[in-house]
From TrEMBL, chain A:
SMART domains: RAB, RAN, RAS, RHO. One of its GO terms (biological process) is autophagy. One of its GO terms (molecular function) is GTPase activity. It is found in: Cell membrane; Cytoplasmic vesicle membrane. This is Ras-related protein Rab-39B. It comes from Elysia crispata. Belongs to the small GTPase superfamily. Rab family.
From TrEMBL, chain B:
Pfam families: DUF719. Keywords: Phosphoprotein. This is Protein FAM114A2. It comes from Elysia crispata. Belongs to the FAM114 family.
Length: 213, 679
């Protein structure tokens, strides 16, 4: 008898302009660390964390950290389809990153269809108050206009990092419970969690074949 | 409620009783056919409000043929009538919903049929195929769900009440009024309030116990079903408690010892006929109503027939009206349970039953005295009978008592505490074992190092490229295709991995080889992560080897370390391939020949697989060394596991590599097409 380590795996994808801080945000969320210096992401990187969506129910968030650079757009687009959650990140101290929100949102929606995804808008680098170029109100209004949740986050102070991920995880879980989102073959946005092995080392079986496609 | 109908219907297994749907349809007018089906498939509660419900019932049951036979079923139970009249007032709102004017109108046969229907309700749950069928839904229907059962019971008794009112009082007001009058509702409320808490408690207990466990109707579960029926009846009785007391208690008591119930029933019947005739006259005004009444009549008659056949099989005394049997069962059961004063309560109940009859008399019914006396007599009589019947199958009612009594084997506090502690300990042990197992589980570790995610992402790219290759090939002219095809084939050939694995024992300069092959790719991807992991692994092995005899690590740790190293290295290798794939697709340098890249990647694969084999050998050597030092330990299984995972690891790397084939072909095609269009 095995207890599943997590009930579901949700694949979340972070998109947004280059250097808005997607990787930093994810690093803070998964490691609790913040690095000032950070190499630009190549293609896509991965992070993962378990999260409790309700008492006793854990889900694994598989986080796809996409490259924001324009030259990777054709690649990152390929990854939208298999995501159940999308976090669109902009930099509150960089007006242009906010202005591109709409493009990101539309692009993601277009590529995710016909599947449904939960979107969250994140105004990042919220600690950078003195360099702020986008007001909280503007960000909130954009999100509300599209019926999305909005947070201002900071990987430096940790502000709202946990909350925003918890929000998207809970919303996804709720949609799953309500049947708006379903586990479908050929779509990896949500996968059933698996029971991790209980047997001892010596009994461990080959796992190579069980890898997901 | 409709669910319970279905249940009851489903539980009908006697082929004779259950008319096939087709037959049913035949008997029904086309318009009703649909409804019959609907009823069968579980009519919604809403449909119960439909005034056409009686016809529905009729069609669903389709027992019209049996009418003739049924006429003789005039066996009349006084107490049943009592109950009917009483229950009507103690109605709950569910039953109000279903109240049907036509039902109230009733028809001549209803009165005489009542007693029988009581019986049928008691014995034949399969008849309860429609809520609008008055008597059949009495609590005896197989209780799947106690709430539901209660509802149904209440409902049926309501129907009975409505009918008997029609019989006795000439159904003046009720015939035309489809909604229950407010007075009745208030009475119902007050009746409820009159229950003594004790009674309530006992009844609930009875009902709960009776309801649990008995899921089918049959002789096997007869005991529990009987009890369920009994509890329902008792409840019905007690609904009347108080009401009677407040009104005409004295009359009731003075009326003890009057004629036999059967005589009384005869009288009732006559009256019923009269009253229902009146009802009929009124019904003539409304054609549809009449229609319904007739249908209802037929239905009830057929039901009686059913009841009769049931009776024969079950060999229950005909002269004893079933409803009292039930209550009597409750009575004697109480006594046997040792709650003495409950018996007294039952008597009170009987009295108030009579009282209820008295209330009816104010509407033109003069047999209250008989009712009262009959109630007591019959109660006594059938109480005995029920006890005997129960005891026959259950000596000293041991089983019944065990079934109904509160659990005596409740665990005490200390034992439950002990249990909880044991459980917690076990859980903790299990968790620890889990954690241990995870430390050396290749698949899990590979996933933790994001190898799986990279493989999946690479797969996405690969699939996309494959589609693209197909569509591009289709769009090409045949001569262009001919020039491009050799290159695609060359790339494909480069992906043919030769299985002739070199001797993995040979050390190789992993870092420089990887760097070399990656630079051949000219994709600008650096093998930093891969090399870092590799260096860590090498360092660990070196550290192990440098300590000749006294190793701090046990075999277990060594094994864990080896699996973890393999998993991490594999994950980073897969990541490297993923990145290479991404860069190939993005690469702006169109001069680079894809075939060459394919070869470089193939060589890289070879290096990685070689390294995996080499490292696994080294780890196994470490394990063997430890085993030599510590003779008692058997490392064979660990060694096997390491080799197994090493082969898994190579499979992952090769899979990742093979996923790059469409990507490279895609890139090559685009290059070629670009060259074609520009020239």
């Amino acid at each position: 008898m095995c207890d599943p380590i997590f009930e579901y795996q949700f694949r979340l994808i972070l998109i947004g302009d280059s250097t808005v801080g997607k990787s930093s945000l994810l690093r803070y969320f998964t490691d609790g660390k913040f690095d000032e210096a950070c190499d630009p992401t190549v293609g896509v990187d991965f992070y993962a964390r378990l999260m409790e969506v309700k008492p006793g129910v854990r889900v694994k968030l598989q986080l796809w950290d996409t490259a924001g650079q324009e030259r990777f757009r054709s690649i990152t687009r390929s990854y939208y389809r298999n995501s159940v959650g999308v976090m669109i990140v902009y930099d509150i101290s960089k007006r242009s990153s906010f202005e591109n929100l709409k493009d990101w949102y539309e692009e993601a929606r277009e590529h995710i269809e016909p599947h449904k995804a939960i979107f969250v808008i994140l105004g990042h680098k919220a600690d950078n108050e003195d360099k702020r170029q986008v007001t909280h109100r503007e960000g909130k209004r954009f999100a509300e206009m599209h019926g999305l949740k909005f947070f201002e986050t900071s990987a430096k102070t940790g502000q709202n990092v946990e909350e925003s991920f918890a929000q998207i995880a809970r919303d996804t879980y709720q949609h799953l419970q309500d049947g708006h989102i379903r586990i479908e073959p050929g779509w990896d946005g949500v996968k059933a969690g698996f029971a991790r092995p209980k047997e001892t080392v010596q009994l461990a079986e080959a796992e190579g074949e069980s890898r997901c496609c | 409620m409709s669910d319970s109908d279905d249940n009851a219907f489903a539980s009908a297994d006697e082929g004779e009783e259950k008319t096939p749907p087709k037959e049913r349809a035949k008997q029904a007018p086309a318009r009703k056919e649909k409804k019959a089906e609907k009823t069968e498939t579980g009519a919604s509660t809403g449909s119960l409000k439909n005034p056409k419900t009686p016809s529905k019932v009729e069609t669903a049951k389709g027992k019209g043929k049996q009418q003739q036979r049924n006429k003789k079923g005039k066996n009349c139970g006084i107490s049943a009538v009592q109950e009917n009249s009483g229950t009507k007032k103690s109605e709950t709102k569910e039953s109000q919903k279903t109240e049907d004017p036509v039902l109230k109108g009733g028809h001549p046969d209803k009165g005489s049929g009542d007693g029988n229907r009581e019986m049928s309700g008691f014995e034949e749950p399969e008849k309860s195929n429609s809520l609008s069928q008055p008597a059949e839904l009495s609590g005896a229907s197989v209780p799947k769900d106690s709430d539901q059962n209660q509802d149904v019971g209440g409902l049926s008794t309501e129907k009975k009440g409505a009918k008997s009112l029609g019989e006795t009082a000439g159904s003046k007001a009720n015939i035309s009024s489809s909604v229950k009058s407010p007075e009745e509702q208030t009475i119902a409320a007050s009746d409820r309030d009159h229950h003594t808490p004790q009674q309530e408690k006992v009844l609930h207990k009875l009902e709960e116990s009776a309801n649990t466990g008995s899921s089918g109707w049959g002789w096997s579960s007869w005991g529990s079903s009987l009890l369920s029926a009994a509890s329902t009846s008792v409840q019905t009785f007690t609904h009347q408690v108080g009401d009677g007391l407040t009104t005409i208690m004295d009359t009731v008591e003075s009326s003890l010892g009057v004629p036999d119930p059967n005589t009384l029933a005869e009288e009732d019947k006559d009256k019923d006929v009269e009253s229902l005739e009146t009802a009929k006259k009124e019904d003539v005004i409304d054609d549809e109503k009449k229609d319904k009444t007739e249908l209802l009549k037929e239905n009830q008659e057929s039901e009686r027939a059913e009841r009769k056949s049931e009776e024969e099989t079950k060999d229950t005394g005909q002269d004893v009206s079933p409803e009292p049997t039930a209550s009597g069962g409750g009575n004697s059961w109480f006594a046997s349970w040792g709650v003495g004063d409950l018996a007294k309560k039952m008597q009170d109940t009987g009295k108030s039953l009579a009282a209820k009859g008295q209330t009816l008399m104010t509407e033109g019914f003069d047999a209250v005295e008989h009712l009262a006396a009959g109630g007591i007599d019959v109660l006594e009589n059938i109480g005995k009978k029920t006890y005997n019947t129960l005891a026959e199958h259950d000596p000293a009612l041991r089983r019944t008592r065990q079934f109904l009594a509160p659990r005596g084997d409740k665990p005490n506090l200390s034992s439950s505490l002990r249990e909880a502690r044991d459980q917690a300990e076990q859980q903790q042990k299990q968790d620890e074992a889990n954690q241990e197992a995870l430390k050396a589980h290749f698949g899990t570790l590979f996933d933790d190092y994001q190898g799986l995610a990279h493989l999946e992402a690479l797969e996405i790219l690969s699939n996309q490229s494959e589609k693209k290759v197909h569509s591009l090939l289709n769009s090409l002219a045949s001569e262009d295709l001919a020039t491009i095809k050799p290159q695609l084939l060359n790339i494909k050939n480069a992906f043919e991995l030769d299985d002739s694995a070199e001797d993995a024992a040979e050390d190789q300069d992993f870092t420089s080889l990887v760097r070399q092959h990656l630079s051949e790719l000219e994709l600008g991807t650096a093998p930093d992560k891969l090399n870092t992991v590799h260096q860590m692994v090498q360092a660990w092995i070196k550290d192990f080897d440098s300590n000749d005899s006294n190793h701090s690590q046990g075999t277990k740790e060594t094994h864990e370390k080896s699996i973890q190293a393999l998993a991490e290295l594999t994950a980073k290798g897969v990541e490297q391939f993923h990145k290479a794939g991404e860069m190939v697709l993005l690469d702006k340098d169109k001069d680079k020949d894809c075939t060459e890249r394919a070869h470089s990647l193939a060589r890289l694969t070879g290096v990685l697989c070689h390294e995996i084999g080499n490292l696994s050998n080294k780890f196994v050597a470490c394990l063997n060394k430890l085993a030599e030092e510590n003779k008692s330990e058997d490392v064979t299984r660990m060694v096997t596991n390491i080799y197994l995972e090493a082969s898994n690891s190579s499979t992952y790397i090769q899979d990742a590599f093979l996923l790059l084939l469409p990507v490279l072909q895609h890139a090559a095609l685009e290059q070629a097409i670009l060259a074609l269009t520009s020239s």
